[in-house]
């Protein structure tokens, strides 16, 4: 029987690379983000909670911006532009949970959590090899002045989605956002 070495010179670099990959995945995310190992990111689920009380925030909606890579250059010959698309998740459950599929063609996304009485909470993520399903806990901070938050944070975000055709926001989502914004303005300022 031949005397075999447990690690040959060929397997040592592979094991080192694997250890570095696993170590980088373990240490690069906050406690609010949990993930399953997988080939690539496909699904995002999570919970929306009040940061003060820890109770679920069951109202509101999530504005999802997905960015698709474009390798064509622009006027300055820079490559790597991103084409944005937007959609809404209006199905926040009473327990504050949400789920969304991450389009396999998109290279990154941004979630904007919007709820009356809270500051807008944003979460950005780039698709990564080795990260399968994501589970994110959005900690919503109560707004000390909802009228100011509506004018300075929420309105520019919503108006940009409604006025910028590049987002290609579906018509039912545009209608929902327009009506929601008009209702908030009426309740807080007495105007539309």
Give a description of the structure.
This protein is of the alpha+beta class and 192 residues long. The protein has a single domain, classed as Carboxypeptidase-like, regulatory domain (Immunoglobulin-like), CATH 2.60.40.1120. 28% of the residues lie in helices and 31% in strands. The protein is built from 3 helices and 8 strands; from the N terminus they run H-E-E-E-E-E-E-E-E-H-H. The protein has helices at 11-27, 146-163, 171-189, and strands spanning 33-37, 43-50, 61-70, 81-89, 97-101, 108-114, 121-126, 131-140. A hairpin with a 6-residue loop joins strand 6 (108-114) and strand 7 (121-126). Helix 2 runs antiparallel to helix 3. The model has no long low-confidence stretch (mean pLDDT 81).
Number of domains: 1
Order of helices and strands: HEEEEEEEEHH
Cα shape: globular
Radius of gyration based on Cα positions: 21 Å
Helix content: 25-40%
In terms of per-residue confidence, which ranges show pLDDT below 50 for 5 or more consecutive residues? Answer: none
Number of helices: 3
Strand order of the largest sheet: 1-8-2-5
Structural class: alpha+beta
Strand percentage lies at: 25-35%
CATH topology descriptor: Immunoglobulin-like
Tell me, what is the CATH class?
A: Mainly Beta
Span between termini: 86 Å
The number of strands is 8
- CATH level 4 superfamily: Carboxypeptidase-like, regulatory domain
Walk me through the topology.
Layout: H1 11-27, E1 33-37, E2 43-50, E3 61-70, E4 81-89, E5 97-101, E6 108-114, E7 121-126, E8 131-140, H2 146-163, H3 171-189
Parallel strand pairs: 2-8
Antiparallel strand pairs: 1-8, 2-5, 3-4, 3-6, 6-7
Helix pairs in contact: 2-3
């Amino acid at each position: 029987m031949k005397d075999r070495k447990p690690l040959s010179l060929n397997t040592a670099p592979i094991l080192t690379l694997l250890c570095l990959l696993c170590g980088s995945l373990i240490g690069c995310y906050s406690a609010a983000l949990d993930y399953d190992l997988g080939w690539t990111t496909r699904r995002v689920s999570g919970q929306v909670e009040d940061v003060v009380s820890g109770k679920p925030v069951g109202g509101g909606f999530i504005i999802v911006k997905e960015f698709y890579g474009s390798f064509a250059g622009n006027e300055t010959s820079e490559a790597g532009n991103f084409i944005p698309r937007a959609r809404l998740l209006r199905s926040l459950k009473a327990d504050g949970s949400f789920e969304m599929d991450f389009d396999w063609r998109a290279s990154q996304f941004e979630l904007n959590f919007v709820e009356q009485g809270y500051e807008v909470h944003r979460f950005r993520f780039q698709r990564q090899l080795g990260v399968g399903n994501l589970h994110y806990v959005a900690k919503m901070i109560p707004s000390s002045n909802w009228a100011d938050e509506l004018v300075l944070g929420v309105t520019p975000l919503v108006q940009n989605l409604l006025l910028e055709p590049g987002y290609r926001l579906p018509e039912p989502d545009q209608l929902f956002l327009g009506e929601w914004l008009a209702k908030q303005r009426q309740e807080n300022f007495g105007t539309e």
